[in-house]
Amino acid sequence: MAIFSLWVINKAGGLVYQRNFADGLASLTSNEYLVLAGTLHGIHAITSRLSPMGPSSGVQVIEGESFKMNILLTVTGTKFVLLTSLAEPTADSVLQKVYSIYADAVMKNPFHTPEMPIRIEGFDTRIGALIGTGQT
Amino acid sequence: MAYAQPHPRLSVVSNSSHSSIDHLSPTTSSTRFSLPAVPTPQAVAKPAANRPNIYDRPLNKTRNAEVSASAFAFLFSEIVQYTQKRVSGINDLERQLNTLGYRIGTRVLELMVWRSEGSSKTPKRELKLLSVLMLIHTQVWKAVFGKAADAIEQSVENADEYMIIDNDPAIERHISVPKDMSQLSCSSFTAGIVEAVLDGLTFPARVTAHNTPITQFPNRTTILIKLEKSVLEREELLKK
């Protein structure tokens, strides 16, 4: 029961925010995170076209042996990715709350440039208050 | 659904009547017009074109009306971005925001006075500095932000300086100022409103906004009012 990490990927596939909360996943360099985010963006684009039933939202959960990756795609194309333990029941609701914090603290902030890395104190504080140390 | 979009100024009620008719109609939208003429809420409601002019509407009807804080936050964010592109430096930006607030303040004062004194048989005007400051602290803040400001103080060092303190200014709630601009206070906009109200009541002053964070309220803001000499001199005369 833990939340390991949060990524925010912009609509072009660039990683604009990455923050670790709990230990449990290998820590990577920022360059490696960027590559992973770009790859995930590609995978997401493929999965959203695979559905036989017309347009699809694309992949939502990827499960590994020790973690799962929860993906929330917004209508504007921004993706929120939450890396959690397998048994984390709150992942979906946390993602929704992250989205609402993003809408408040990032989009309503005049000093943020859309699609650029998020360096906003208010966003950090509120995400910290929401997820804390990653233990739920 | 092929019918034209309802006029945006139609009320929510009339929108819902559209959908209920759609629900009843077995085929496409054209049947909607062959339905028997049942008085629907849309038919009862006045057509949008006949709504009274905004200047003819009763002032007190909208006294407690509120606008969406979200919509305002987006608008204000755009205002700051727009202004930032057209100024050089933080002082200039604050001055511009102050000017924009001033334009709001003149209207706030006019509307507030009309609302409170317009129907009164014995309209009065504030003459004393302290009651004017209290009016700003309570009435103006309530009219603009929906709640009174948190404190009002007089400067210890300068007799001509007063401070209005807001622990969590509504217009800055979603704004994080980057470190390299830490001087900037977007509440300069509020300062402009206050300056206009003071000017309108003939208490000319220079009003500025400053960040004064404390641990409990990281967004705490002080609106500093520096009154002109003439105001204090007049106060002395009135006391006699």
TrEMBL record, chain A:
- Stored SUPFAM superfamilies: SNARE-like
Localisation per UniProt entry: Endoplasmic reticulum; Golgi apparatus, cis-Golgi network; Golgi apparatus
The family database entries (Gene3D superfamilies) matched by this protein are listed as: 3.30.450.70
Gene Ontology cellular-component terms for this entry are: endoplasmic reticulum; Golgi apparatus; TRAPP complex
Chief location of this protein? endoplasmic reticulum
Residues in a coiled coil are none
Gene Ontology biological-process annotations: endoplasmic reticulum to Golgi vesicle-mediated transport
Give the source's domain of life in one word: Eukaryota
For this UniProt record, give its keywords in alphabetical order, as a comma-separated list.
Answer: Endoplasmic reticulum, ER-Golgi transport, Golgi apparatus, Transport
**What quaternary structure, including any partners, is listed in this protein's UniProt entry?**
Part of the multisubunit transport protein particle (TRAPP) complex.
Q: Which family does it belong to?
A: Belongs to the TRAPP small subunits family. TRAPPC4 subfamily.
Q: What is this protein called?
A: Trafficking protein particle complex subunit
TrEMBL record, chain B:
**Protein name per the record:** Trafficking protein particle complex subunit
List the subcellular locations. Answer: Endoplasmic reticulum; Golgi apparatus, cis-Golgi network
Q: Which family does it belong to?
A: Belongs to the TRAPP small subunits family. BET3 subfamily.
Q: Does the keyword Endoplasmic reticulum apply?
A: yes
Q: How does it assemble?
A: Part of the multisubunit TRAPP (transport protein particle) complex.
The keyword Oxidoreductase appears for this protein: no
What the entry lists under PANTHER family is as follows: 41-2 PROTEIN ANTIGEN-RELATED, TRAFFICKING PROTEIN PARTICLE COMPLEX SUBUNIT 5
Biological process terms from the Gene Ontology for this record are:
endoplasmic reticulum to Golgi vesicle-mediated transport
Q: Which UniProt keywords apply?
A: Endoplasmic reticulum, ER-Golgi transport, Golgi apparatus, Transport
